[in-house]
Amino acid sequence: MRAATPSTPARRGTLHAGAWALWLLAAASALAVTRNPIYLALVLAWVAVVWQAAKAVPGLMDAERAVPLSPLRFGLFVVVVSAIFNGLMVHIGDIVLLRLPESWPLIGGAITLEALVYGALNGLVLTGLYAAFLLVNQVMPIREMVRLAPRAYYAVAIVISIAVAFVPTTLRQYRQIREAQAVRGRRVQGLRSWLPLALPLLTGGIERALQLAEAMTARGFAGTSTPGHDGWTQAGLVAGLALAAGGLLLRLVWGAGTLGLIVAVAGAVWVAGRRHPQTVYRPAPWRAQEWLVAAGAAWTAAFFLLPLPGLERSSLFFYPYPRLTLPGFSLWIGVSTWGLLAPALLLLRQALITRDA
Amino acid sequence: MIQFEHVSFTYPNAARPALSDISLELPEGELILVIGPSGAGKSTLLRCINGLAPHFSGGVLAGNIRVGEFNPVQATPQVMSRHVGFVFQDPEAQFVMDRVEDEIAFALENAAIAPDEMRVRVEETLDLLDLTPLRDRPLSTLSGGERQRVAIAAVLALRPRILVLDEPTSQLDPKSAEDVLTALVRLNMDLGLTILVAEHRLERVLPYVDQILYLPADGSAPLLDEPRAVLAQIDLAPPLVRLGKALGWQPLPLTIKEGLRFSRRQGKNGQGGNGKMGSGRPSAVTPNEGAPFVAAHNLHAAYGGEEVLHGVSLEVHPQEIVALMGRNGSGKTTLLKCLVGLVRPAQGEVRVGGRSIAGREVADICRELAYLPQDPNSLLFAETVHEELAITLQNHGLMAKRRGEPLPEYATDLLDTLGMARHATSYPRDLSAGERQRAALAAVTVTQPRALLLDEPTRGLDYAAKHQLADLLKGWRAAGMAIVVVTHDVELAAEIADRVVLMSQGEIIAQGEPAQVLGASPLFAPQVAKLFPDSGWLTVEDALQAA
Amino acid sequence: MVDLAAAMRQRSLSLVIYALTTLLGVAAFLYPFWLPAAAQASGSGMAHAADAPFMVSVLVGLCFAVLLLEVQGQGMSAKVVALLGILVAMNATLRFVEAAIPGPGGFSPIFLLIVLGGYVFGARFGFLLGALTLFVSSILTGGMGPWLPYQMFTAGWTGMAAPLCRPLVRGLRAEGKAGEVVVLAAYGGLWGLIFGVVINIWFWPFVSGPAGQYWEPGMSALEGLRRYAVFYVISSLAWDAMRAAGNVALIGVMGLPMLRILRRFRDRFTFEYTPAPAHAAPGAASAPAIAAGRSA
């Protein structure tokens, strides 16, 4: 017998948090790997499209979390600053714009167009990363993020959940204490006058932690104190780490070492997770649309990361040095970036449905 | 169902046992009220039932406890959580998640209940406690009463057969407390749940209670019997019962309805009210003469962007206690904050000691107008009570900022008056609720102010601590202080107030002598006034004097 | 005494894991300095130089996952979970307040609790307090980015290494005295700087990409370091000095009273009940004694 689990859009994000995580992973790895301006422009454009699509869905962009800086302003600032920085620091390249006296430390020498261009490209990468992370941070409720944690990290997930739940309480407590101290004559002068605020806040917090721990125990939270970690998991982790360390020593970061560590970590997380018998209330459904996003992300990531047979990857690694050339372009890689558009499709559909309703 | 055999329990590093040689047997399916003076071991006894003591606290346990087929000590609290639901005092400190529904599911997730089953249980629990409309709400937006109902729901989702509550309403206002208690009564009546509840507000639950368990402070054997039998033997009782005992009413009335049968007869005997308001009560002082010490005129104030005071005027004279009453959100606390300058009014004026407070610092105003906030914990942070007083004096420049500087004599006298002299070197946070409050009171009044404002001073206090507070305030009134008490506690207002001011929606809707204002109100009338309408009596003492 | 041997083995394996993750983490953090030289020497193509930042991020992430698993895998009792949750909430609230009223430069009040918490409750507690503070405050303030694992790692290390001050304090016989605060303040100041240095390394390849070093003939790790040092001094030293000074001042003023509070409650957080086996017979009258187990 299966209980029907309708998921109202008001209750959860339109898309499973795991799908967003995969999308973010694909976008971030694409951005991290390439410096080719064409590919960068494509990825940035698709991130922007998804951003606009998310804005079209009413109530999705989480209003309770502030946007510290819009990606557009971040981008303008970072691109300019990186270009100038790189231009001043790197003095190679054939197209010399001007020369600073050689005696000036570090920045002295030729200022080249190549260096400026490369700096600006780096700025674009940072902008893209910032926008992608910010977007996911905005559309994914915190509790959904916490639920993504594998069961092996249950205790950590609970810590995060408690912390998020207690931030408003702590703020209220802080205001109360400030008033209480004001009426006994506290005046703000110097660092010491913050003691009357910090100390009751800390004491109150610790007292509350004790009560909370008691309440959790009374509701069957056992923590991870029993029977703990077993030797095999630990040994597996040590082996994985040793492999990765070996890989580093052999200067093959990208080689078998990291792969070994991935396997070891995944294994350890799985084994540790089996010792935690918790279940999940109303798990978010993984539907066709989540598969679509995942497939899109995998499609993009594969072309950017894997040495696929018959794929000319050299266009990914655009270098303006020693002389600025036009970047190469591989149709396959260009088309593969479309995979990042999958969430936009689903969000737009969602927006249309809610508008009609 | 629940059996204690010669149970003793001592906390780690404690000098004497919290429980000594307790033997009792609690029946199934009943609503059992656990009462006793603070420090008698009520909380410890309750915590033994689900194994929190000793598993959580450490300590030495002797004797045998059985709950159903379990020994909670051996079963551990984790296993017991499926059989005993436990709800705590502070509604702020028992939540792990940030939303109602997720919070209820937390215990089920820990117990590894299958998702389909979990869904069903959450739904039925939401219905059971009327929480369905709140299911998606963040917990931080709920009122105290709603939170306690969520806390009850969160433990009931595991379908325990026993529900244990440790002073669940002590932090709540009367309306919220009533909601919680009503929910408990319904759970007991409808589901036959065994419920143990430690509670100070006897008057509300007494009619529904099957048994009372009384734990004496001196460690002698506990009393367990039906309510009338226990109440006849102990001092701790609501006014109705105390009056009934003093006047020899048999069987002892537990509700106003039962009490009225006796009081009507009493009234007919001609001993009681003569029909004239206020005549039953001698007026202690004649206030309103001379200049008021605190005067607010036509205050308009906003709090969080909304206007909460609409043209309030209030005067408080020396040698007067004013009780400020009204529903939650009626603007009482904002009014107090306006008087000390914590909230600056958009319009209107406050004068303290004849001088306007506009433009004066809060620290400056509070030297002559002390303010005790609701939560005394937000005041206390020093290592000793002694040091708390020194810090206030130093803040006001009344004492040198030197280590080991002795307190001035008036400060040590104050500690004596408050009965805190023997705690002068204790860590304030280790004291009982009543003592903590008196420490906080000492910290704000050590400047020898001429007026005092108190916000909900009886919250979380037991009967004994309440009485101590009332006597203290009366003493200060006699010494010439002007006092304003914001309170929900009608019995306190009846006992000490010279004038009651009733607020609603940011306006004063009534003020006058307590007998006039309280006696006439169905919501705020103390029990004695309900028993003897039109008599002007408010407290047991009023009635006994006249009788 | 099989249990004892198992516990010893577990403990030594834990130590190995801490050491390896730290080693790998540091190596990964420092990749911009050794990678160009290494790639040049091995003659591997520029494809690898371009993949490197990505692979290094993966490596940092994995190390972090391992460390987190190891740290929470043992003895996270309800008390530790609750205390961590609430201290993280307090720190995240401080970040809120800080975001609203920016302090001077890189000043941030969060390190106070991270250092003191790690110092009093131990390395594992300190690591989690540091790492989770950064995580929670970044999702609340929207400052989440690819640099987050680096921040979490570094803040975690700050708390994790704080117990290293203990032998020094003990050596000075300064427990509960001013000397203890001096040691901790110096430690906090030091980490205020290290935090900045590490986070800036994350930006470094973007500011002066690996190509800049790769193509320059004779570019060595040392030269890379020298360049970074200049970059750091120009761009961030003043900013980070504020953070270091802030840490010193905060710990100096608040350290002693806060330590007193943390220590006062430490016992209550570590009391755990372990029944004596002799009394475990079902139904028997149980009178087990207490055992004070260190759970943090």
Would you mind describing this structure in some detail?
The complex is a heterotrimer of chains A (about 350), B (about 550) and C (about 300). Chain A has about 350 residues and is mainly α. Chain A is built from twelve helices and two strands. A two-stranded antiparallel sheet of chain A has the order 1-2. In chain A, helix 2 runs parallel beside helix 4, helix 2 packs parallel to helix 12 (about 340-355) and helix 3 runs antiparallel to helix 4 (about 115-140). Chain A is globular, with a radius of gyration of 26 Å. Mean pLDDT of chain A is about 80; it is low at about 1-10. Chain B contains 21 helices and 19 strands. Chain B is globular, with a radius of gyration of 25 Å. Chain C is built from twelve helices and two strands; from the N terminus they run ααααααααααααββ. The longest helix of chain C is centred in the last third of the chain and has 34 residues, at about 235-270. Chains in contact: A-B, A-C, B-C. At the A-B interface, helix 6 and helix 7 of A face helix 4, helix 5, helix 6 and helix 14 of B.
Name the helix and strand elements of chain C from N-terminus to C-terminus, one letter apiece: HHHHHHHHHHHHEE
Let me know the average pLDDT of chain C. 78
**Oligomerization category of the chains in this entry:** heterotrimer
Rg for CA atoms of chain A: 26 Å
Give the SSE string of chain A: HHHEEHHHHHHHHH
Largest sheet of chain C: 2 strands, antiparallel
**Spatial order of the strands in the main sheet of chain C?**
1-2
Spans of chain A of at least 5 consecutive residues whose pLDDT stays below 50 are: 1-12
Q: Structural class from helices and strands of chain A?
A: mainly alpha
Strand adjacency order, main sheet of chain A: 1-2
Fraction of residues in β-strands of chain C: under 5%
Main structural class of chain C: mainly alpha
Name the beta content range of chain A.
under 5%
- Strand element count of chain C: 2
Question: What is the makeup of the main sheet of chain A?
Answer: 2 strands, antiparallel
Find the count of extended strands of chain A (DSSP E, 2+ residues).
2
> What's the shape of chain C?
globular
Chain pair forming the biggest interface = A-C, 108 and 101 residues
Number of helices of chain A: 12
**Helix fraction of chain C?**
over 70%
Low-confidence spans of chain C: 43-47, 210-218, 277-296
